Amino acid sequence: MPISKNITAAIQNSSVIRKMFEEGIRRVKLYGEENVFDLSIGNPVFEPPPEVKQALLTIAQSDEKGTHRYMPNPGYTTSRDFICRLYQKETGLSLATEDVVFTTGAAGALNVIFKTLLDPGNEVIVLMPYFSEYDFYFSNHGGTAKRVDTNVHFHFDFDNLEKALAPGVKAVLINTPNNPTGVVYNKEELDQLGKLLSRKSKEFGYPITLVSDEPYKNLSYGVDTPSIFNSYDNSIIITSYSKDLAIPGERIGYIAISPNHEDRTQIQNGAVVSLRILGFINAPAIWQRVIPLVGNAKVDLKPYRENRDLLYDHLTKCGFECTKAEGGFYLFPKSPIEDDREFIKSAQELNLLMVPGSAFRRPGYFRLAFCFETDFIHRSLPLFTKLAEQYGIA
Amino acid sequence: MPISKNITAAIQNSSVIRKMFEEGIRRVKLYGEENVFDLSIGNPVFEPPPEVKQALLTIAQSDEKGTHRYMPNPGYTTSRDFICRLYQKETGLSLATEDVVFTTGAAGALNVIFKTLLDPGNEVIVLMPYFSEYDFYFSNHGGTAKRVDTNVHFHFDFDNLEKALAPGVKAVLINTPNNPTGVVYNKEELDQLGKLLSRKSKEFGYPITLVSDEPYKNLSYGVDTPSIFNSYDNSIIITSYSKDLAIPGERIGYIAISPNHEDRTQIQNGAVVSLRILGFINAPAIWQRVIPLVGNAKVDLKPYRENRDLLYDHLTKCGFECTKAEGGFYLFPKSPIEDDREFIKSAQELNLLMVPGSAFRRPGYFRLAFCFETDFIHRSLPLFTKLAEQYGIA
Q1: Which residue of A has its CA nearest to B139?
Q2: B251 touches chain A (CB under 8 A)
Q3: Do B280 and A251 touch (CB under 8 A)?
Q4: Does residue A60 form part of some domain?
Q5: A394 to chain B, minimum CA–CA distance in Å?
Q6: ipTM score here?
Q7: How far apart are CA B265 and CA A8, in angstroms?
Q8: CA-based nearest residue in chain A for residue B110
Q9: What is the pLDDT of residues A157-188, one digit of tens each?
Q10: Band of the pLDDT at A17, cuts 50, 70, 90?
Q11: Same domain, yes or no: B286 and B369
Q12: In a shared domain, residues B281 and B309
């Protein structure tokens, strides 16, 4: 074995999506970019809000010295305090500077948090369907995923959750608004989850940490995105600016620890050590400086909402079963046949690229992203009609 | 145990340096910044070369679209090809785009490479003294450090190396120019190391990878810094722009795989998977764009050389035993007493902050950084005189 066995296996497992990706490139070359509809990856085509460009320009023109040096690992105090004020306003809770740790995006933040929390053999509950690379964010640090099914609407199934909560479960990871389903958890169900976790924490004699991964928090369509901080004390929020500022290539996000977490100080200190030893050291300095300058600016939600409506209406009209996304920029319809990979292959034959639900541990579904120009989405619609006809659901 | 046992231990172990750091802050508050000489951390006070500022400005002013989006995980092709051309020029070897993987600094790169290479139980040879956080870059991924002593001049001790090279050793990690010693390995010793590793690879039936961590490569004072690519085929170079562009807070570096590495393709693919699953995803987009625009610009070496000479001359005049650094920005003199922590405490009492050699797994020495204004270094000299008098070596 020339390289790590785990990595060799991961290369092989990721080869399905990689092959799809390569097939997409082949098709673009063969049929032209305007004729291939790649809805597989959530890489928004929209530009960041003008405030981002203005902030970058301000920083680039500044004569301030020392702005590219090391700062304390968790980031600049001014940037962290800016985040504290956001949470104060939203939740009424007073976070200290130390509760906020800037990270290289949400994926970096999740690795830092699970490195901090997990001992070998610990389990983390995840709700199917989910972004399957989460599994690595546990196994990298000796933990394992404990997979729990959601209900038919992709919301919490409290019976399943209660059954899964056993000693050794160190954390529960949720993602709201959800990738791939578009579901947003409401206040009532978060409160109910909080109560369940409080009861189980008491029973087990240690706090079960609720980790909420929320990069789509500011992309919701007419629903609230309530904070877990107001539903459960032992909680940690992970987020990034990749989606709401449309800067996924820049890797900037943060960890926010609830000031009411029983292990608040240990988690603060542990996150700093984890940042360092995993090799992140600190989040890119320039993006830490951009964040407070940008204030509350976000990408324009109008095209997202239009795209969602356009696709959802067309898909359901065609006969696809689909939950209407309340947030994020994905739809997760039911595949007309059980074998979602087979279905995805048929779509590919029509130059329509999507991801099979099995890649999110929910076979029988498929995911499509709608973070593209509305005209592009428009031009993709006839292909869904064709697919529906092909599978006799139209 | 509220958080991970390993992390709890790491917090406790790092508390020595943390306490020093806090003591430094306390002293700055008490005695004023101009009266405390913190030579403990390698955080250059110099500004990046003007080309960096110009490149940032060019990027900030550009109307090009999509520059903050996801790109392929290992980085932009144009930026990677820029690196390939540098190696072509230096070593005569033709690296392919795929041989270069951009990373969030060298610490990120090292984690990516050891995640890629190591199976649980594998060993990595490291040469004492060394930056002790290397240990985590192995243990994070199931590996362990196999510590080998250098000779009295901090160069390779080939007898020790040959003894340590046993089956299960997957890699050898070197750091040149060296932190903390300032040693630069010359062509002859790198060739000899290459020959030894070739022989042992053949003997063990798998390639032993030589990983060279080279963030100080462009900071040398009158000596060559030969490439390991010309001394050994199964080699990987890790570097960052933190030091030679003075942008350590920005986290930009890369992995370069020798095109002659037996496992070249597996390592390329493995590094991409590791980038993803460790949560790095890709190096910050904006800094990947800056690198080719900056060309060959580097920080001005004049103050570094002046500082080195000033400190080295003064220290040896005072009676300290010290190797003259040929590269990097550290000196690693012998402590006048065996207990280096005790010595560091005495220095601290004089408001002179440095790091004990035991933090680099070579007790009886101490490390001081010289990446500061020459005037600042100048003003610190009387404190070394005082220390020498205090310990009766003057």
Answers
A1: A277
A2: yes
A3: yes
A4: no
A5: 36
A6: 0.96
A7: 12
A8: A279
A9: 999 999 999 999 999 999 999 999 999 999 99
A10: low
A11: no
A12: no
Cross-chain residue pair B274–A7, CB shorter than 8 Å: yes
Beta strands in chain B (DSSP E): 37-38, 100-103, 123-128, 144-149, 169-175, 209-213, 235-240, 253-257, 330-331, 352-353, 355-356, 366-369
User: What is the rounded distance in angstroms from the CA atom of residue B76 to the CA atom of residue B94?
Assistant: 18
Give yes or no for a contact between A328 and A369, defined as CB atoms under 8 angstroms apart.
no
Residues 346-385 of A with CB under 8 A from B: none
Q: Chain A contact for B262, CB < 8 A?
A: yes
Q: Which two tokens stand for residue A5?
A: 């066995």
End-to-end Cα spacing for chain A: 50
Angle at B288 between CA B234 and CA A278, to 5 degrees: 60
CB pair distance less than 8 Å for B279 and A41: no
Helix pair angle (A374-390, A340-349), 10° resolution: 120
User: Residue A28's domain spans which residues?
Assistant: 5-49+301-390
Closest CA–CA distance from residue B39 to any residue of chain A (Å)? 15
Q: Determine, for residues A4 and B141 on separate chains, whether the beta-carbon distance falls below 8 Å.
A: yes
| Residue B355 three-state SS | strand
Interchain contact B228–A (C-beta under 8 A):
no
Q: Which residues pair with B175 in a beta bridge?
A: B213
Which of B2, B68, B141 lies nearest to residue A247, judging by beta carbons? B68
Residue A278 and residue B278: Cβ atoms within 8 Å? Answer: yes
Among A294, A312, A341, give the residue marking a domain's end. Answer: A294
Instruction: Give yes or no for A285 touching B (CB within 8 A).
Output: yes
**CB-based contact (8 Å) between B266 and chain A?**
yes
Check B60 against A60: CB less than 8 A apart: yes
Q: Are residues B41 and B72 in the same domain?
A: no
Total number of domains constituting chain A: 2
Q: What is the pLDDT along chain B (394 residues), one digit of tens a residue?
A: 689 999 999 988 876 666 777 788 889 899 998 899 999 988 899 999 999 999 999 999 999 999 999 999 999 999 999 999 999 999 999 999 999 999 999 999 999 999 999 999 999 999 999 999 999 999 999 999 999 999 999 999 999 999 999 999 999 999 999 999 999 999 999 999 999 999 999 999 999 999 999 999 999 999 999 999 999 999 999 999 999 999 999 999 999 999 999 999 999 999 999 999 999 999 999 999 999 999 999 999 999 999 999 999 999 999 999 999 999 999 999 999 999 999 999 999 999 999 999 999 999 999 999 999 999 999 999 999 999 999 999 8
Residues A200 and A290 in one domain: yes
